[in-house]
Structures are given as structure tokens and as C-alpha cells.
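hiii, so i know i said id send this last week but things got crazy w the move. better late than never?? heres the sequnce for the chain we talked about at the cafe, plus the structure i predicted for it. fair warning i was half asleep when i ran it
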Amino acid sequence: TAPTRCPVNDREVKTGGRCETRAMHDYDAIVVGGGHNGLVCAAYLAKAGLRTLVLEARPEVGGCAGSETTCGVRVNICNCDHTMVRSMPLMEELGLDRFGLRYIDLDPGTVARGWDAPGPVPVRHSVEATLESLAITHPEEVDNYRRYAEVAVPAAELVMRLSAERPGALNFIRRSIGPRSSRAARTVMLWSRKSAGEVLRSFFTSEDLLGPAMATGPAVWGLSPETPRSGLGALAWAFKHVGTTGRPVGGSGVLTDAIAAAVGAAGGTIRTGVMVRSIVCEGEHVRGVAVLDDAGQPEVIQAPTVVVACDPREAIVHHLDNPPTSASPFIEKWRRRTPAAGYESKIDARISGLPTWKNFDADRFAAAGFNDSLSPTTVVAPSLAEIERGFQLMQTGGVLERPIMFVNVPSINDRSIVPSGSPDEHVLSIEVLFTPYAVEGGWADSAEPERWLDVASELFEPGFRESIMEWRSMTPPDYEQHFHLPK
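okay and structure toks below
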């Protein structure tokens, strides 16, 4: 638990039922890990008046929510679309606009497309606008989507409200999911007991909708369509109608840079390039963390509270130094948990011109208010059966011939990520799902990343492959090596 003020005076901190003078500690709280979760936590701790330190092993903060320069352009480490984080009151409570955070709103934020689809399905913020677009390519699914939205949107709104509640707001949660709960709460409870595939098949018949709906939900978590109790993943599209999707001007890392600035403005301290060697315990309590100082010598930074904002299993099983006997069951529980292997890769490229989608009736979609087919994230997915096959294939080191892909060209709306200023140059992003941590034959000798570019070229008119000037791939072992993410 976070420290609370002692009744004696404001210079003391109460931890674990005892009071100690603040002078005994270097900080009130240490946050291990400077990704977006750790930074948010540190910003709130510092804002509350606690002397807060963030320790990040990499040279810069942000983690996988950050951005970096490669191939002559600014790219995002992972996806650039922010929806859920914008539903939280972070911007207002931390004043992030003061530190340069500004969003470009996207509508649609997501476009669904099957590998053999007759055309895209823009998932607009408005349900009615989505139905209008859906009628162009899949008129038989219009009533099905309307039925889905009537059930799923209220459930997504409920989940959003629960997410925004302060931890421990049990009365609100009990009212929401108790015996006298609303229809939305009953939907949440019912779907949570089913698989995502089961829920989706109860609404849709076209694989052009089923596959992308699965891809934006549990597949992003590395799960099969038939994974038990994954049904809440079917709310993924409903969230697009509840929240507003946007991208920070300058790339995803502008968000984490702004939060880091909020930490500093509230009096917090951030140290980068510092690897935590252990979390030091003393008796029944945490004493602080052990690191190597700039000279490579051991250093213990003392604090009565340590927040683990990095890999929890690694910290709890391997980095607790002299843990109390009472923690043994907790440590053993984490020791028995087998880490799931990585399953997502990403290609970033600098291209010399904009590609053109195949099978895209621009005039009809323009009449429906959809004029930009490249900057929204297009989720290209095979059928549910193929996604299940891809999940199984991944277990033995294989990748689907036509895997799940998330494709976008963020530079259309944000020219700041193309430093050259050339109007012809753009940034292409392709995320590929169900790519195994241990690919057959090893990643070093694998043709897989480059093959994905050839496969993606099937989606576009001729000339796409030739437009790629520079590109790089990030595979699961790359994320492990560069971002300290085990497996």
C-alpha cells in the first residue's frame, strides 16, 4: 500500500503500521520501470506530495508506448492508436496539454477487412455511420451489426465507467454487477463466461467481420478465438463507438514524454539508464532497491514503498532480496506461472509514395463520408478457423501464410514524423500477429519479416513493393532484447 501521512507530523510516513521519519529514506516511493504505466503511477504519487523516483533501464522513458527514429522517419514502438487511455481523466488531472500533448482525432479509427473481402468496413464512432458504410460491401450484415451494437455498446460504456473508477470503489462495482444489475452488466457477466469466437458467431456470419473483430480483441492478447472466458474481447468494436480514437501529434511517445514532464513538474525524479539489480527487503518490509551507480558500484536507494512497473514475475521471483518468510506463498505462486511467449511483430518503413488499396470503391465510400482509406488502422484478418490454425501453428514456430495484419500510414495526418519534409515520403506501419517467439529455424535466418511485405503487397495495387525505401522489423526476441520484456 502507498504510504499515508502520520498523525504526528507531516514529516513522517506511515508504512505497514509503523511510522518512520522521512529522513531515514532517500524517497517515499520508487517506481521501477518508466513505461506509460510506471510514469502515470509516478505522476500521481508526486502530485500527491510524495518524494518519487522513477528508475528506467533504457536510455529513455516510454517503453513500448514510446517512439523512436529509424529509417529516416519517426516511428512508434507499437501501435499508434490511443482509445482507452483517452477515456481516463489523465490529460485533465495531470495537465498533459501543458507539456505538448495534442491529439489528432480519427473517425473511423479502425477499418475491418478480410483477406478476400469485397471491400473494407470502416468502424465509425457513430453506429449509424458504420451501418451506412457496411451497407456498401456487406448489406446482409447490417441488421446483425445493429443487433450487436444494441447489446455491446452499453456493456462497453459500463466497462469504461468501471475502468475510470478509483481502485476500491466496491459499492459502485457491486451496484453494477450485483443481483439488481442492468442489462449491460448481465452482458458483461454472460460474455465473460464464453469464448470470443462463440460470442462473435452469435451475431455475424461473414468472415470479413468475424476475423477482424477477433483480431482487434483477444488476438491482440495472444489468445485463440476458442479460448474459454475470452468473450469480453468481443467488445473491441463497441469501444470504438464509446471512446474516441486519436494519435498524438509527433507520435505515440509524445504521450509518455508529457507524462514524464508531469512527473518532473510535480517534484518527481526520473533516472534513465539505471538497471535495478534487486528489491531489498528488511524484516517484513521493503527497504528500497539496489542498483549500480555510474561508476559500476552497488548502490541502495532507500524507500518504504517500491512499485513494480516492469515484468512482475521477473521482479517477484528473481529480484526480491531477503524477502520475508510470510511472502513465500506469494513468490511461489508467481514462480509456478509459466510466462507466455511473445506473439507480435512489427514492420516500419519509409515509402516513396502512397499505396492504393485493391477493391476499393472510392466514390461510393466518399458518398458515405469515408474519404481517407490509408491513415486509419486497417485490420486485415483471415477467417476465425484460420486464426485458430495460426494460433496452433505459432506453438510450433510457424506463421500463417496470410496472417493478421494491422496496416496504417500515420504520416498522412501527421507530417511531423517525416523529418525530411518531402511531400512524397510517408511512414508505413504493419503489425503482424501470431508470430512466434521461437520461429522455426531461428529469426536470424528466417525469411518471415520480408515475406510479410510480399504478402501485404497483395492488398495493394502494383507498385507498393517498389515504393519501400527503407524498412526494419521488430520481432518478439527484439522486444525482449531492447525493452527488457522476458520472452
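btw The two ends are 29 Å apart (CA to CA). thought thatd interest u
miss u guys!!
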